[in-house]
Structure prediction request, 165 residues.
Amino acid sequence: MTRRLAPHPRPRGIALPAMVFLLVIVGLMVSAGMLLLAQSQHGQVLQLQSARALAAAKSAGEWGVWQVSDRQGSLGLPGDTLPPCFATSTLPLPTPLSDLTVQVSCSRDPASGSVDEGGLKLASYRITASATSGASGANDAVQRTVEVRHTVCKNPGATAPTYSC
Prediction:
């Protein structure tokens, strides 16, 4: 008599764990890709905001230099008097930059009067302009500061109104 061997049992249920494993791996890869994409976009937004803040701070520094230069003699100061510093100001910006806050301050050396250089009157100004966007400490906050140093010269012996050096 021939004895029949019992059939070898087939493994069952191997497809389900393999599919779950593949779904978990694919899900992790997709979520990692989305995270990298979000971080990249956030970095690009911060770079754009940083460039806008720097441009606003530079413009505010130029505004400050114009305030103390008196190139047109519009302040009506005599030839031996140099312009005083302006008060710290918050500048309003037009619509594309209205989300930025820009502050400009000025300090002068000497604080009053002038330095005499061979009959010419000189004063040095330090103008600090700071542009900020977003709340301080937030992950989207940007601040850029520009410092401009400017020396103004007047020649009391020159013709009014500019008293050019």
Q: What stands out?
A: The first strand starts at residue 89 and ends at 91. Helices lie at 15-69. DSSP finds one helix and five strands in the chain.
